[in-house]
Specification:
Blueprint lengths: L16 H21 L12 E2 L11 E5 L5 E3 L2 E3 L1 H14 L5 E5 L5 H13 L5 E4 L1 E2 L3
Parallel strand pairs: 1-7, 2-5, 5-6
Antiparallel strand pairs: 2-3, 3-4
């Protein structure tokens, strides 16, 4: 008995490279984006207040205002006056109205000085402000 063969020629199995390249490119781009978002903000070193519910939340595009224990206000590592703070806040809000604003204050900073900075931030039109704290050691 003779079996009939198919009129369609048989092809050997091949490994398709194009989908593999697409997946690898996606993974590369994903890892690049994650690594960029993990960069810490360049800020002055401070002894932050401790909080049980805090978790790391730094992004590269944040606007970090620092108040050290002597009451000096800084943006990043640069000391500024209240007038300079107002103008830099206005510039940041022109670029991005939803810019994340963080106020970082030393534990020994007077509460009134932090309130003055918060008042300036609110006057600039910022509705969402966060305070940076350190996680409490377990």
């Amino acid at each position: 008995m003779h079996l009939l063969s198919s009129p369609v020629p048989r092809r050997k199995a091949r490994i398709e490279i194009i989908p593999l390249i697409d997946v690898m490119f996606f993974l590369l781009a994903s890892f690049m984006m994650v690594s960029l978002s993990m960069q810490k903000a360049a800020t002055k070193k401070m002894d932050l207040a401790l909080a049980v519910t805090s978790k790391p939340d730094f992004k590269p595009d944040i606007f970090n205002i620092g108040v050290d224990k002597s009451g000096q206000v800084t943006i990043g590592k640069e000391a500024v006056t209240f007038e300079q703070l107002d103008s830099q806040l206005a510039d940041a809000l022109k670029k991005n109205t939803n810019a994340p604003i963080f106020i970082t204050a030393d534990q020994a900073t007077l509460h009134g000085r932090v309130n003055q900075v918060l008042d300036r931030v609110r006057r600039a039109g910022v509705q969402r402000v966060s305070f940076a704290v350190s996680p409490k050691p377990q």
